[in-house]
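Give me the fold.
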Amino acid sequence: MGLLLSILLLSASAVMAQFRASGTITDAEKGEPLIGATVVVKGTSLGTTTDINGKFSLQVPTASATLIISYTGYETREQSVDGSNAMVTIGLSEGSSKLEEIVVTGLSSNIKRANAATAVARLNSGDLNGSTRPATLDGAMSGKIIGANIQSNSGAPGGGVSVKLRGISSIVGSSEPLYVVDGVIINNSQFNTGAGTRAFNGAVTTANAGSQDQATNRLSDINPADIESIDVLKGPAAAAVYGTRANAGVIVITTKRGKAGKTKISLSQDVGMVKAINLLESESWTAEKIDQFGGFYGVGKADALAIFNQSGGRTVNYDKEMFGETGMIYNTNLSASGGTDKTKFYIGAGLNDETGIVKNTGFTRYSVRANIDHRLNDWIDFKVNTAYYNSASSRSFLGNDNNGVSLGYVVAYLPNFLDLRPVERNGKLVYPASPGTGQNPYEVRDRMENKEKTNRVLTSGTMNISLIRRENSTLKLAITGGLDFLQSQPTIYAPEDLQYQIIRANPGASRFANNQAFYTYIQNFLTYQWRVGSVALTSSVGLLKNIQRTDETWIQGEGLLPGQRNPTTAQVVLANSFQSEAQDVASDISQEFNWGDKIIGRAGVRFDKSSLNGDNEKWYAFPRASVAFNLTNFEFLADNNVFSQLKPRFAFGRTGGVAAYGDLYSTLVAANYGGNLGANAPTTNGNPGLDPETAQEIEVGLDFGLLNNRILVEFTYYDKRIYDFLFQYTLAPATGVNSIARYSVGDMSNKGIELGINYNVVKEEDFNWNTGIQFWTNKTLIERLDIPPAFVPSSGFGNFGRNRIIEGKSPTLWWGIDATGKSPVEFGKDAQPKYQVSWNNNLTLFKRLDINMFWHTSQGNYLSSLTRELKDEGGTTFDWSKPSGEKAADGSDIPNGLSSRLFGNPGYTTENYLLDASYIRLREVSAYYTLPGIAKATKNAISNIRIGVSGQNLVTIWKNSEIAYDPEASNFGNRSVGFGVDLAPFPSSKRFFFHLQAEF
């Protein structure tokens, strides 16, 4: 009887110890319910989300507890509850601390920044679109990612941007990061258009597409207005979860999603203008200069003097004529979002239309996106994301050139007294023939075509299935899959009656290409969350597969009938195709632990195999580990008056970089023997024993906060090593083969520091000022080299700014010929900057006026300016006739144009063409005003109207603006080594906007 009574008393006590907590979660300022806010019992895995009215209810297993309430974009709050205080109303304030951000750290997990053990950079939608309107998503990141070197590949509308995170990760492979959109790896490759081949501007002397076409990278397809956030995993310590393709880091893009509640409709309209950042002045000519020069390029002295005399002193500013247009920009974006606690949606559509600073150039993009979230029941929920992009671009002809077609080339050689402007005769424009250059530039601009159309579909989906839900443990299966289908169709055309075409054996050329890429991706992760005392544990295991297929075909016709463009009707028809397929398979195991937000650790290993490796059945292991200590959460610092956060962190990781498709095998070369098809032995062999390049990184950091986290500081040091980087291996002539395509030849390191400081200077009701400074460095060195020093293929031209690999040196140093004629000589000038700094300021006045100013500087980097070399040869450099300080034999001054700057003259050195590219740039500036009383005046039909003005690249300060168009010019920016070349590029632009935004 006593035992039974004891059991009853204990049971009653246990029942009394439990209670049901309930309440409402609202926006603290507006009082509106927050739908989908998360409520968790601290120290357990018990939790729930708020319904459409912001209400929640959950069973608490103890007599008292602390609830943790969180909602994206709001400060997390804790609330104590017990049986006597079981019903609460809690208001959340919009988040102002970066520590509350949730950053992506894995394939199936994310973490609050305050607990992150690696340096993950994050850009939210405000960082990307909150100030001004970038043409492309990659352009929106410029200067904003600490640890990144971002350069434009072309100033053309929609032109590509190159991103390198923490230095270079390969010598001949790609150093571009892996891009992931909504959990799915996407294609960011460049398809060569053929504009640089022999029939057009002739930078490549064969009919095959070359690497000098100024092709854009495919991230330009994505509308920046669709993006909610970007998380940047800069080095192997953070990117190891992505394994064999993550040597250069990973950029994880998350698109916008709907929030439960009233349907919100947003409309934004931008109208803008585009102008060249900088135009170059061309020196005027005199009879004396013509005599000194011996005429002008391609024209003898007598004929040059005759043309000069006929001009009557009239001149033409060709830089302004070619690059001085005022382009117009029209951006329209419309979106709708909302839903219930079970189903949420986001639908967006956009039109971006831009004309360039060169006549007949432009970029247009149409985009449609639909993202749906649905909770089927308490156990299953899923997300579906689908987007379609249609873009068209016209980029004209710039960059490298062998036919006198590139506008930049021609302008560099044209004396300003030579008038090639078209004239109207009998209702038709007639273009004068150029007496010295390959082609009248006006005719290239007006009649030749270099266009590309793109269709792209991105779709992905995730299903989460809760298999176990207990008080202290949950088991979830997450299935993610998706595809990226891309079709690029470039068309190139040169009429048969062009000056440079008439002299060809088969005048007139057209080319059509059809490039398709089809990427598919799937991953399955099983995640078990459990507890041991006060330690929260997360264990996960996953399987992944990625398939990448490409199909590139082109047909080119040379020798067109008048008015014909169809390449199949030409006298000479050339065609080719290239198909490739690569597959990666991986498995991943990871373990995470969190001891009361005091010590947070993660460890894991990923095993990958790829069809691009020599042994495609061999698994390669990529381990990772990290730990962070939140010291202010320990008792000994809990009540300190200095630090509101103090977190040392340590991380380690390894990643891989696969070889290019085709490097494994030797390919026979087609040949014709008396009309019969045959084959020749290859001159370059493949390497069937290829192993992936491997990167390993050690990262240490210290994050701390002062003044209740109004001042946040993040400091990181990293040491990133690339082992067994691939390079072309030259063989002895006796072998009968010139080289092996790719071979492991050495090791390389990247070391640097990153320092970020964010300070909420003023935080008042009517005035808020937040400022942030970022500083970062990187130094690259060849640590081991098993072959003799060698030039990097396709880096530079001749002795003009080439790059070499040599032990103990940076592979991005410039080499050339010095004043004694010695070559190669290293000048101590690097294409990579010594350091970069960005400074961002956000001010809000009276909750209505928002002002932003974003500055960025890059210091210590040099570009190889062949634009200057071309203008020296053409006699058009702004200072061509100024005294060089050198004396002729008769004691007279030698002008710059005939001095050591010009090849063949005494003291000539290519160091003269290495320009200091250090700059300070006002990347973005904006002012927006939110109109008062709109909701009341329109009876809530319109909830908000915001108007504003903004500018991009409005101010650039650098000392070589008279010599080159832009310090960030980089004709080959997508190359790991060989970027930083200024070769008659499409000039960069500054942009100015008027904005109107409305919410309904």
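Residues 1-16 have pLDDT under 50 and may be disordered.
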